[in-house]
Design brief:
Helix content is 32%, strand content 17%. By secondary structure, the protein is of the alpha+beta class. It has 3 domains: 90 residues, no CATH class; 46 residues, no CATH class; 28 residues, no CATH class. Helix 3 crosses helix 5. The two termini are 30 Å apart.
Length: 218
Amino acid sequence: MKLEDLPKYYSPKSPGLTDVSASTSKDALSITDVMAAQGMTQNRAEMGFSAFLGKMGISMNDRERATELLTEYALSRCDRVAALRKLPAEIKPVVMRIMASYAFEDYARSAASKKQCPCCRGEKFIEGEVFTNKVQYPDGKPPVWAKCTKGVYPSYWEEWKKIREVVKVSCPECKGKGEISTACKDCRGRGVAIHREESVKRGMPVIRDCQRCGWSWL
C-alpha cells in the first residue's frame, strides 16, 4: 500500500447497488489492514505521518501535531547554528515555533493552494475614504414657483458640499474573494515563464524556467 492511496479511505463512498459481489480476494486490503498500517507508520515516523495527514487536509489536529514535532526537532538542533545559539532562552522557543510553522506551510502548499488575504484578513472588504457631493438646503427647499419663474432657478436654494466618508469597499488585493493564491506570480504554478526581453528581440514568445520560484511553483 502506498501512502498516497491513504486519503481515499477517508472519503465517503456511495453504495454500489448492483448484483455484483464485493471483492473477496486475499490481496484486497480491509479497513482493519489500513488502520493497522496507519498505526505502524505513526509509531515509526510520527512527524512525517502527521505532516502528510495535515497536508492532505485529513486532520487539523495532525497539522498542529506536525508543527509541534517540528518545533521540538528544531529546538534539539538549533544550537548548531551560531545565530540561533545566541538567542535568549525565553525567545528561542518562540522563534523555533515560527520557523516550524513556515516549514510546514512550505511543505503543505501547492500551486493550487490558497491563503487568507493579508490586506483584508479574509473579510473581503476594507475601509476606504471616499468624497461624495451632497446637497443641502439651509433656507429650506425651493418653492414650486421657482421651477416655472423666469430668471429663478432651484439651485439658488442649494448648497453643495464635499463630504469625506469612510465606507466599505471591495479589497483590491483579492478582488473581494477573501483569499489569494500561493502560486508564483510569474509562472502561476507552471514552473516556466515568458522571457520578456528575448521575446521582444525575436518577435515571438520565448519560454524559460521561472526565475522567481526556481521550479518550486510557490
